[in-house]
Amino acid sequence: MPNKKIPVLELNDGTKLGQSISILRFLGKEHGYYPKDPLEAHKADYLIDCYFDNFIGIALNSALPAKLLESPFSIPSNKAIPDFIEFLEPYLKDDKFLCGDKLTIADFVIGGFYVNSIDNDKIAFGKEKWSELLTKYPNFKAYGERFYEENKVYLMSREP
Predict the structure, then answer these.
(1) CA distance linking residue 23 with residue 41, whole number of Å
(2) What phi-psi label fits residue 156: left (phi over 0), alpha (psi between -120 and 50 degrees) or beta?
(3) Is 111 exposed, middle or buried, given 0-12, 13-18 or 19+ CB atoms closer than 10 A?
(4) Checking DSSP bridges between strand 8-10 and strand 16-18, what pairing results, if any?
(5) pLDDT tops 80 at residue 160
(6) Would you call 138 exposed, middle or buried from its count of C-beta atoms within 10 A (0-12, 13-18, 19+)?
């Protein structure tokens, strides 16, 4: 492990890469999901950094068991997710994805949150709260649906 932590990505030549976002950027560059234009790359990085700046609040909101949904960290009282979606609004209006008409690493983070937490049939709690949230933010819902459709083959085949 490069920094004695996971995740780690081991390349064919044995090189080991650490840190999840660094790995994401590496894979994005390798597979064409990292913008070549410096301003577009900054936009993708900026959106990812903003997501992770809010990650604790987002994670607490999206990973609570049903019995805790009315706790101080529940969706109605913790505004981390609604505030983050509100922040995303300008990026959701004109383009198919967050940084234009092509998927970028920012979409895999934020669209991944949508398909893994908000619109995931395997999660049994909070469906009504997520539904209310998506009703309030139709641009985010439409974005999430576009992300799902673009990745449908993979998402339908992944393990639970």
Answers:
(1) 15
(2) alpha
(3) buried
(4) antiparallel
(5) no
(6) exposed
Burial of 58 (0-12, 13-18, 19+ CB in 10 A): buried
Asked if residues 26 and 15 have their Cβ atoms less than 8 Å apart, the reply is no
pLDDT tens across 33-70, in order? 999 999 999 999 999 999 998 876 666 555 555 455 45
Structure tokens at 81: 């997710």
- Tell me how far CA of residue 91 lies from CA of 39, 69, 86, 98, 144, in angstroms: 14, 29, 10, 5, 13
Q: Minimum mean pLDDT among 33-37, 83-87, 106-110, 143-147: which range?
A: 83-87
What is the rounded distance in angstroms from the CA atom of residue 97 to the CA atom of residue 129?
Answer: 24
What pTM value is reported for the model?
Answer: 0.84
End-to-end CA distance of the chain: 27
